């Protein structure tokens, strides 16, 4: 997997994170998603972020030297 593909995956995981972020607790009752989907998505996102961060670290890509990573990580803080 090249660097641009890794960064695209990071972006997709971030989009998924935003989709289910507010559905913790009873929030999923008001959504179109099942409890199992929400829990599985949280679990998958957590594992995917571990893999992505490990790969970024191996490749020496950080928010200081990669604009796309900087944008994604800044947006994740909110």
Could you describe the 3D structure shown?
The chain has helices at 3-20, 35-59, 67-76. The protein has 78 residues and is mostly helical.
Which structural class do the helices and strands define?
mainly alpha
Q: How does the overall form come out from the CA principal axes?
A: elongated
Tell me the strand percentage band: under 5%
Number of helices: 3
> What does the largest sheet look like?
none
Stretches with pLDDT under 50, minimum 5 residues: none
Helix and strand layout, with pairings?
Layout: H1 3-20, H2 35-59, H3 67-76
List keywords for this structure.
78 residues, mainly alpha, 3 helices
Structure at a glance:
The chain has 78 residues and is mostly helical. The protein contains three helices and no strands.
């Amino acid at each position: 997997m090249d660097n641009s593909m890794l960064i695209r995956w990071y972006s997709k995981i971030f989009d998924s994170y935003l989709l289910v972020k507010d559905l913790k607790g009873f929030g999923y009752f008001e959504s179109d998603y099942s409890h199992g989907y929400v829990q599985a998505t949280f679990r998958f996102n957590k594992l995917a972020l571990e893999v992505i961060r490990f790969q970024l670290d191996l490749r020496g890509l950080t928010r200081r030297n990669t604009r796309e990573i900087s944008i994604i990580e800044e947006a994740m803080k909110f």
